[in-house]
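Continuing the series of single-chain predictions for the mutant panel. This is the parent chain; the variants come on the following pages.
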Amino acid sequence: KGANQAVAMAKLGAEVEMFGCVGNDDNGRRMLDNLNRVGVKTEHIQVLEGVPTGIAMITVGDNDNTIIVVPGANGKVDKAYVDGIKDELVKYDMVVLQHEIPLETVHYIAEFCYEKNIPVVLNPAPAAEVPMDIIDKVTYVTPNEHEAELLFQTNDYEELVKKYPEKLLITMGEKGVLVQLNDGETLTVPARKTKVVDTTGAGDTLNGAFAMQIAGGASVKDALQFANVAASLSIEKFGAQGGMPTYEEVVNVLMK
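Parent structure:
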């Protein structure tokens, strides 16, 4: 997910660096080559001996997908690794996190960014419990409906977003994204109608596009409208990263 989100941001024109671990194997080399090709910096990705690169196996059918994750080297992204990249993290406008590295590492990074006033987008996927103090310390949380229900033990999503205005953004697939704005409006940013080819990577595209827009100074409402269009364009092509749009492609749709 992190690699997908990094690629989404880079294709949209953001300056992005990926942090994490890969194995010293063909998958790891392909991943690094692919990230570099789209403009994602990889200087601080650690290459580990004796551990395979993490992979995700995806099956697609009936306009939806099932994903099986084998973490491999992702499981080695520990606190010691984070301690070695802290000086780099503080150089960036935003940090984007997911749950495909150890949860204690995710929480450790969130705490560090909170202390350093670095905005954080936490995409709590794959679904896992998150302590409420971590929810309080990150800037944005972007679960889907299933993940939101696990995190907050309720499926009353409208009441839920009211408790976290402009922080909790619940993605609901074809129904769009639900958020409470600071002015009191409960807003559903509708999904753009499109021909679905492959939904793989749509959520990652949305997260990447949203983070890139917020880092550039956009409002939450405008960032979500941009991100929704980006996500809709991504599902019109096959593959997670191959379908991710450029900035110009998103703007062309928004201007219609």
